[in-house]
What we know:
Blueprint (H helix, E strand, L loop, with lengths): L1 E5 L1 H10 L8 E6 L10 H10 L4 E3 L5 H4 L4 E5 L11 E5 L7 E2 L2 H8 L3 E8 L9 E8 L6 H22 L16 E2 L15 H10 L7 E5 L2 E5 L3 E3 L12 E5 L2 E5 L4 E4 L21
Parallel strand pairs: 1-2, 1-4, 2-3, 4-5, 6-9
Antiparallel strand pairs: 5-7, 7-8, 10-11, 12-15, 13-14, 14-15
Helix pairs in contact: 1-2, 1-5, 4-6
Amino acid sequence: MINIFIIGKKGLDSVTGISASLYPKINAIVIGKDSGVVNDYASEIENFAKQNNISYFFRTQTDENVLAKATLNIAIGWRWLIALDIPLVVFHDSILPQYRGFNPLVSALINGDSRVGVTALMGTDEFDKGDIIGQRTIAILYPIKIATAIDRLAKEYALLLEEVISASDGALTGTPQNESEASFSLWRDDEDYQIDWQQDAETIKRMIDAVGFPYKGAATWMDSTLVRIFDAECLADVNIVNRAPGKVLFKHADGLVIVCGSGLLKVKDFYGADGEKLKVNKFRIRFK
């Protein structure tokens, strides 16, 4: 029997994407919540468990007596410690050993990686360092929104979860990671949503796309107002003799053209803290 610890859309799509014939192998689902995203899909995961008569708990309300009936724990998108008293398989949002750590998919998309993936590995005392049980990867073409990348990768999560559950009746074995190829992705907070206009336009565009829904959206200061940007268009650069990244260069009928470290970005819509679309009539704006 298996406990599955999950959070977010990839967690939801993982359990809903496996064959119903595997549901009897699930002892319980433990659901995490995340106030840092627009939708953490906790209620959708709860509804799935209810509809399929699978025991479930929210993270802070778990019944240890029920969880103790399992012989394997699986964690998908999980960010809290899980005891290693029984084997633990962790699903990680990267092609390990690349991007160990936090928000690896966001980091990979900002960096413009041509492939992203998911890795199933044995949980150990050191994060994302255990033996690799399986991996699935997909090719990426830019521009791409994070929601689209999550949807595409979620299908691979479900396929990999099926493989792990199907193999769980035997001894799960993996392959050691190549430490010389390891890289790390740091945790992100509100400051990491801030656009750095000194960067080139393509990098900023990828960042805007990578932190959009279900995340809060890229942020920048317009005078004393923090605004969110969810989409932008890269334009060809022009010769600016006194380049000042963040300043508006042109005001088109359908948006503002903003100077970047190199290149230009056209932004059509700006949103306030409550998600309302803002009217921007000024031309002399320096975004910071």
